[in-house]
Amino acid sequence: MLLNLSQKEKIVWTNHVKDKMRYYRLSENRVLNIMRKPKRREEGIADGTIASMQPAGTKKNPTEIWMMYQIVNSQAKNQIFKKTKIISAWRYPSITPLGERPILPDDTLSGLKDILKDDI
């Protein structure tokens, strides 16, 4: 399911985001596209995270797809690499107000603190 990316661009997918991608029927290419070319970028809910958004849906039923990620440093063979840890992705049923943090569903918030504390 997940792409093999070059060493320069190391992406770490948490189990939480994999479950949410299945639940909301999001492909990994869609999530990576949101990270690379967001329509809007905000501060994430948790400390040190970034939330990115792209609009989706129709004119009558607009939705947004949000994803949250964190950039972490890791060390291997005396070299420091930057890795992107994708934490969560969700579909928001409406349009969020500009300049406000994205609203997470309750089930997404429940395991968020445990995910951020885990080491890569």
Q: What features would you highlight for this structure?
A:
single chain, 5-stranded mixed beta sheet, alpha+beta
Description of the molecule:
The protein has helices at 15-24, 28-36, 106-110, 112-117, and strands at 10-13, 40-43, 50-57, 62-76, 79-92. The chain starts with 9 loop residues before the first strand and ends with a helix. It has four helices and five strands. It is globular, with a radius of gyration of 14 Å. The chain has a five-stranded mixed β-sheet. The longest helix is centred in the first third of the chain and has 10 residues, at 15-24. Helix content is 25%, strand content 38%. By secondary structure, the protein is an alpha+beta fold. It has one domain.
Shape summary: globular
Helicity range: 25-40%
Average pLDDT figure:
81
Number of strands: 5
How many angstroms separate the termini?
20 Å
| Biggest pleated-sheet summary | 5 strands, mixed
